[in-house]
Amino acid sequence: MGRIERAPAWILKYRDRIENGTITVEEILEEENRVRDKPIKLSTVTRAINALGFHTSGLHLHRDEESETSPSPARSEAATAANEEKKGGGPGWLQKYRERIEKGTITVEEILEEENRIRDKPIKLSTVTRAINAMGFHTSGLRRGAKTAVAEEVEEEERDRIPYWILKYRNRIENGTITAEEILEEENRIRDKPIKLSTLARALNIVGSVRKKEEKEKEKEKLEGEIRTQERADFQSSIGEISEATRKRFEAIKGNWEKDLGRTLHNDYFMNILLALAKLLGYGKTLAVKK
User: By CB atoms within 10 Å of each CB, which of 66, 159, 187, 269 scores lowest?
Assistant: First the structure.
């Protein structure tokens, strides 16, 4: 029972396929590294599977070498899909950033900002991260600051440290419909070796820490969404009603300026710049590059 307690949360999504023997250690490694900023090692996957209570001796790619003449259709389809994903290089909307991603001249956060300027419904940072991974690149070198990357790694490690057995109580814990003593009593009824209250306390602290961070992230996303909505409203109120196509074009141009200047421009401020340039053009004048 002790092994199950230490199993990281991320391995649970592979549990059914591990039990059925329809996935290998190498395939888990490949799938997991496609959705992570920092890749894990084969030994990490092996330890996680062992923590679930399974042996990995029958879960390696070499087990299929004897049957190469008649490979499993499901396995072949999965391999083909994986290869196509690698060749395809991620979703279509990400392709316009490919060159800058390859050169390392754009960050994940900048892609998020640029993309959300031209979308009706904003996407999340995690969506950009998964898309870049699907393109075949790691995002560890494409972050705005090292502190952000470290913080996310720490948060991911904390999620992985949540004991498997406490997850079945999580909803009741968050809703406040179960006490620590009740969890201890329920858990010890199904265990060969009872756990202590201190073990339960540590598990509850980890769940609570992860929950607080998730709530903070949701509040931050909500606030950013409100700011974007307010900016759109301010922009429309200052110049009257505009079409959706005009708004998207305006925000795309403003985004290019912000990138070149290295700072954010308020909609009204940038509109005044455009009006001033239009006025100069009306007099037959243009701005010259400063030498």
Answer: 66
Q: How far apart are CA 22 and CA 172, in angstroms?
A: 33
CA distance 235 to 229: 10
Q: Give me the phi and psi of 94, to 5 degrees please.
A: -85, -15
Q: Which residues of 236-250 are buried (b: 16+ CB within 10 A; e: fewer)?
A: eeeeeeeeeeebeeb
Return the beta strands (E) in the chain as ranges: none
Single out the residue of 219, 220, 250, 254 nearest to residue 236, CA to CA. 250
Classify residue 138 as left (phi > 0), alpha (psi -120 to 50) or beta. Answer: beta
H or E element at residue 13:
none
**How far apart (Å, rounded) are the C-alpha atoms in residues 268 and 266?**
6
**Spatial distance between the Cα atoms of 76 and 239, rounded to a whole number of angstroms:** 58
Which residues fall within 8 angstroms of residue 239, CB to CB, at 6 or more apart? 271
Q: Which residue has the tokens 């003593």?
A: 181
What does the pLDDT profile of the chain (291 residues) look like in tens digits? 443 446 788 888 898 888 888 888 888 998 888 888 888 888 888 888 888 878 777 777 654 444 444 444 444 444 444 444 444 457 888 889 988 888 888 888 899 988 888 888 888 888 888 888 888 787 777 877 544 544 555 455 455 567 778 888 888 888 888 888 888 898 888 888 888 888 888 888 877 766 676 676 777 777 777 666 665 555 555 556 677 888 788 888 888 888 888 888 887 778 888 888 888 887 777 766 665
> What is the rounded distance in angstroms from the CA atom of residue 207 to the CA atom of residue 163?
9
